[in-house]
Amino acid sequence: MSDLDAYRSKAAAWLESMVPTYGKAARKGLSEADDLALARKYQKAKFDAGYAGINWPTEFGGQGKGHLEKVTFDTEEMKHGFPSFYFGISLGMPIPVLMQFGEDKAWVKERVLKALQGEEIWCQLFSEPAGGSDLAGLRTKAEPDGNGWKINGQKVWTSWAHYSDYGVIVVRTDPNVPKHKGLTYFWVDMKAPGVTVRPIKLVGGDSHVNEVFFDDVKIGDDHRMSPVGGGFAVAIATLMIERYVATDSAGFGPHLDLFVELAKDTELNGKPAIEDGRIRQQIARNYAMRSGLQSITARAMAMMQAGMTPGPEGSLNKLVAVRSRQKLSELAIDLQGSDGFTYDDHASQKEDWTSSWINAPTGRIAGGSDETLLNTIAEKILGLPQDHRPDKGVPFNQIPA
Amino acid sequence: MSILYDEGQQAIATESRRVLEARVSKEELLPLLETSGRYHEGYWTTAKEQGWTALALPEAYGGLDLGLIELGLIAHQAGRSLSGAPFLTSNFGAAKAIELYGSDDQKTKWLPGLASGETIGAVAFASGANALPARPALTLTGERLDGVMTGVAGGLAADIAVVFANGPGMPVLAVAELADVKRTAIATFDNSRLYADLEFAGTPAETLVTGGAAREAALHILALQAVITAHEQAGGAEAMMEIARDYAVTRRAFGQPIGAFQSIKHRIAEIYGLVELARANCIHAASREGQADFITAAAAARISATEAYDTASRDCVQIHGGIGVTWELGLHLHTRRARSLAIEQGNLLFWEDVLVDRLTGEAA
């Protein structure tokens, strides 16, 4: 057994032992507040068992292991429905950026340890109403204010902002230069005066994303995490931190086995639907697509294990998997016919076709829309030209709104 | 078997690409389409010289003892270059049938010739839409074959054929010499594949395996061939993607390269996705030879590679506009090959059924 296999089986055994306390059944029926409280305990248990900050430096309280161990653990963890998502953004991007760019190391270490133990949560304040795919088009501004800065503007789609203690934020500090050059990167205290968080209810009924308003929010210059005007580079570094993460060829929707079961159990024209050619074709093509993604991931892991750099094809995962999840979920509802109307907004997207279907559009937009991903593949991998960009090189305050 | 190519395997890919790019040209391939009964002999000579026919066969019979992964790498390059001879796949399939199911005498008799490429093998199982028919078109009585096999890839030039036939009350896998078999060349949209109808009339044949095991054996041989063909399809799809990309960065319209338009760039990015999924499934399938899930993996490779090649060739022509449908440019060589490979070794419908049968536990 390789070291990684040994690590996997030890992690799997530990995760298994956590299921009675923190698994799907234990969480059933909890209010979000109670679920979050349970999540904080689970995060602490992970920390105590040595599974928090797996690939982070030990000087900040991490485990000092490799990226492979981290992905291995995440892949095993994904199987059980633990409440780990509250910390996904926090530990995924803001905290690693803080470790890399935070100046006051003692303060940084304190934050990292509290985040790793589930005591503090960080959010990432990037998107704005007028700047989604175009990250450099941000309008929220920070102006010099005494020895520090004063922030005014609005962010949107900020995951878990309503539970966050701190956030990292990119704002415009100079509107007189082209858009990429006038941005600066800060951290903010989400409890500071002038910060207002307003949850947005999404189509699936949940409200984990928010609008965040900044009205004369004052921060010290020691909150700055990039050179003035150098925020875009840090923002991009944030987005690039973990190129290979635990993936799911089902697009974070139900496993294909569940569709096969449904097709076996459903009668269509007097026969099991599994005998219908249209259904069989969809199953076969979905299987081929998913097995392809799994092989890409397996190869990427093997390459990393061998000290090589994986190819760019890992970028296909979200694009291909979520689209197919959306269509397969539609078909699953079709297959249930008049039994397909029922909806339970607490049902799991991994197990319930209706929940999977109604939430699938989020997956095709968040973290880069299909169109953005296709542009990235076309430009970065295939060397096709950039889209026509009329605002290129134009000072931000001269771009027509 | 590892899913990462080692240095030796990478060298096979690089070298076979170099050789094929040097020896196969559009100018040689286009005329082959206009007559039936001709194939790209230069390619077959190259395949023999390079030892590709011997690659995946046992050393004891003149082979090189390598496997599906290595042969797949060469098939990928053959697909890229459109090398016009069907024998790499069918020769291998016929040889594997004899190696896996034949007697020592049969192996000694056939394998060295197949390994050197001096003997050309074909595999003839299909009957129309049925890649592995419940009632095969051939009947084996005693040691004699009767009946007609239609559309056998490479059938016009092959020396021997491994066939799936009705034996005495049970299916049988047998090998027959084709010297005295009446062959009719078929005029097709991809003439260099040498498709032929073979008319067996009391043709002597040797049994390899009979009964339920014969059907399983035939499916196994088809799956081995399907993995090779899938590599060829993935290679062809990759070539079409690159041709489309190269055209999109040079051809200009409305004052900019057409590749700057999302309707074009996204189309090519989508092809990239299909090519990479097909490639991943091919590598996976080749690495699963001998494992319980091999047929499943082969079916997945076949399905995604067929989709990749058809889509890539369709969209590549579309991106080119008018020039794309000219005889001279030759994109149609890929369009034709995408369709002929989609039918060889079982069509998409067949492999979709095989895959779902495996997933639902209804496999034979």
Protein described:
- The complex is a heterodimer of chains A (401) and B (364).
- With 401 residues, chain A is of the alpha+beta class.
- Chain A has helices at residues 3-22, 24-27, 32-49, 67-77, 88-92, 94-101, 105-116, 231-239, 256-265, 277-305, 316-336, 353-365, 370-381, and strands at residues 122-125, 141-145, 148-159, 166-172, 183-189, 195-200, 209-220, 267-268, 271-272.
- Chain A has a four-stranded antiparallel sheet with strand order 2-3-7-6, with no helix packed on it.
- In chain A, a hairpin with a 2-residue loop joins strand 2 (141-145) and strand 3.
- The longest helix of chain A is centred in the last third of the chain and has 29 residues, at 277-305.
- The radius of gyration of chain A is 23 Å and the shape is globular.
- The N and C termini of chain A lie far apart (60 Å).
- Chain B has three domains: 7-116, Orthogonal Bundle (Butyryl-Coa Dehydrogenase, subunit A, domain 1); 121-210, Butyryl-CoA Dehydrogenase, subunit A, domain 2 (Beta Barrel), CATH 2.40.110.10; 216-363, Butyryl-CoA Dehydrogenase, subunit A, domain 3, CATH 1.20.140.10.
- The model of chain B has no long low-confidence stretch (mean pLDDT 96).
- Chain B has helices spanning 7-23, 26-32, 41-49, 68-81, 87-101, 104-116, 212-250, 262-287, 294-320, 331-343, 348-359, and strands spanning 121-124, 138-141, 144-152, 160-166, 171-177, 182-185, 196-210, 252-253, 256-257.
- In chain B, helix 1 packs parallel to helix 4 (68-81) and helix 4 (68-81) crosses helix 7.
- Classes of the chains: A alpha+beta (401), B alpha+beta (364).
- Chains A and B meet through helix 9, helix 10, helix 11 and helix 13 of A and helix 7, strand 9, helix 8, helix 9 and helix 11 of B.
